[in-house]
Amino acid sequence: MVRIIGYKQREKEDGNPFFILELQGGVEMLMSKETGQFYATAKKAYVTSTFDEPTCKALIGTEMPGAIVKKEVEPYAYVVKETGEELVLTHRWVFVPEHEETTKHEEAVDQLMADTSVFSQNGVSDLAEQAI
């Protein structure tokens, strides 16, 4: 589940405003690479919307089935606000609705199981039998 925690106004290329919704996943505990201590965090993603500002405001707190997942993208520059450091990132965090999340999992399992001929059917490798 993800929760709508906010919204922001953006501007289209033609100058017209629109709103994006800020989504946040559940709390996760991660270990710091520097200190070895655990800290709490949550993944965030943004999705565009067709809603007006009052609707976006009313949606804050709404939960939706799905997850925020890492998606590989073309490299892009990102500036860390606190330090001004510029990084080159190759991923974004995106929202995936629950039904698509399940479908991707099922596709991965199907792909893995598609060619079962590569596995031994009797527990003995054919290659090992040929060597005898």
UniProtKB/TrEMBL annotation:
Protein's recorded name: Uncharacterized protein
Lineage: Bacteria, Pseudomonadati, Bacteroidota, Flavobacteriia, Flavobacteriales
